[in-house]
Amino acid sequence: MSNPTILTVDDDPLVSAAITRDLGNQYGADYRIIRASSGREALDVLTRLAVRDEPVALIAADQRMPEMTGIEMLQEARHQAPGAKLLLLTAYADTDVAISAINDIGLDYYLLKPWDPPEQRLYPIIDELLDDWRKAHPDHTSDVRVIGHRWSDRSHEVKMFLIRNHVPYRWYDVERDAEGERLRGLAQVAPEDLPLVLVPDGEALRSPSTLSLAAALGLHTTAQQPLYDLCIVGGGPAGLAAAVYGASEGLSTVIVEREAPGGQAGMSAAIENYLGFPRGLSGSDLAHRAIAQVSRFGAEMVLARDVVGFQTRGPVRAAVFADGGEIESRALVVATGMSYRRLEASGLEELTGRGIYYGTAVGEANQCEGDVVYIVGAANSAGQAAIELSRFAKQVVLVVRANTLTETMSSYLISRIITAPNIAVRYHSKVVAVHGEGHLEALTLADAETGASEDVSSSWLFIFIGATPRTDWLGSDIARDDRGFIVTGQDLLSIGSTRSWSLPRPPQALETSVPGVFAAGDVRLNSMKRVASAVGEGAMSVYLVHRYLATI
Ligand SMILES: Cc1cc2nc3c(=O)[nH]c(=O)nc-3n(C[C@H](O)[C@H](O)[C@H](O)COP(=O)(O)OP(=O)(O)OC[C@H]3O[C@@H](n4cnc5c(N)ncnc54)[C@H](O)[C@@H]3O)c2cc1C
Hints:
The longest helix is centred in the last third of the chain and has 19 residues, at 531-549. The mean pLDDT is 92. The protein has 552 residues and is an alpha/beta fold. Helix content is 30%, strand content 23%. It is built from 16 helices and 26 strands. The strands form 6 sheets. Strands 10, 11, 12, 13, 14, 15 and 26 form a 7-stranded mixed sheet that branches. Strands 2-1-3-4-5 form a 5-stranded parallel sheet, sandwiched between helices. Strands 17-24-18-19-20 form a 5-stranded parallel sheet. Helix 1 (13-27) links the parallel strand 1 (5-9) and strand 2. The protein binds flavin-adenine dinucleotide. Residues 233-239, 256-259, 263-265, 267-268, 271-273, 306-307, 335-338, 380-381, 384, 470, 473, 521-523, 529-532, 534 line the site of flavin-adenine dinucleotide.
């Protein structure tokens, strides 16, 4: 296949030559750079490429062109090159028009001319756009292959792990894909040993544990040093931010994550309120960017390891793993966030992972293509899932206990749900039972007002009913409230009585009842439960760690 194309469009010969030269210098080895001098010529080029099925990664068009403006051209280009990233070159006077184009035509970025020096003002932007494009258009030749049963909970776990760790994979359902059955036969794997995972240049893995899958993929699952300045438990936004700030400010830093970096935010289809991203960004994109930043600054990331215990040994703090082993550090940040609360309904435990899921991964939404999908929940997470799943499902039904969504969901999501033709909301309702042989086949819904119940057919139920912190592993030394949220700072003095704080100095803002152990993000009592606040607290915890380390 030929290299993907970057198309530049400008009627001004000097600007056209400059953008084509700068892009060619940096990206010419991997992309074909084509230059057009008008909107019409660019559309002709795109039509030719579309006919030959040649991919277009990026179109960079100047706004001010005679006959056809850059925005008009980019809007038309959506037909010939639907997935291409769209960049508008503008003068300062066109800024308002460019901002409107973000909503109107899905413009990806606008760049003010001139862009010198390109190393600072052009390449970082293009790098991100091309990176996003490549993620959406992966080269499948090096994919991991997963062969399993559609309704197997282990297959689901493996796929979730790959999606959330940004590992491209191809899925083969043994019952539906002849190729899947062929691969299973070749690897001589019995049906009960599925899922089979084929890693390029690696051994065939039979129903691998998360840890062995991570190791086979080359992810780090053990720490390299005997002692760190800072150990962070939890790789959500708070933990990732702490790792970036810790490592960039000279602390030897390790971060431990049991599932996948990104945390709850990684499950979000569109975070629209995070500063600096006017088009919003997906949680997976945010996580991907954060992971790159963490490794760029040299923090170590230990994946697929569950921290199940905590110990204080003089000035050393130890995080202990489920499967043995531990990490010692001089300071610890707990950023373990929250996990989904369990739904109480008859038959639910048995079918969880077999059509019933807590949360959902954006990349798996297409599994529900053409089906009827039920979602339980009334908060933003349920609303985002409904919108994402409605892109594939025939019908999405949101099951809500209350009579309204207005008290629990943001208005921008409510208006999208109400206007979506294939999303219905069932108010004052709850799921009381689930049924199915081997996988979900039907649900019983009860009406809280009339008491009437109804059985409905569906193979999919996604549950978003809030979350609780899982902090039992911290033992009794770290003060928590009765729901498990970690008490920090001044709250230790007011809530926890004298037992909670032992030193003559007052606790620092995010410090827990054990000096040198800090809590950041959703796991902390009275935290705001938002991405931005989690990131802010993660960053701030590092400043407090520095102050603490100066005292010991
Ligand atoms: C679907 C969804 C959509 C959302 N949308 C938005 C939005 O649009 N805007 C917004 O501002 N907020 C949104 N939120 C809320 C936001 O995602 C959270 O506030 C934020 O992720 C909290 O970050 P955190 O780092 O504190 O915790 P988390 O994101 O919960 O991350 C904690 C991490 O710690 C790991 N962990 C837990 N225990 C252990 C252990 N013992 N050992 C090792 N690792 C452990 C977990 O696996 C997890 O990765 C959304 C949440 C959800 C679920």
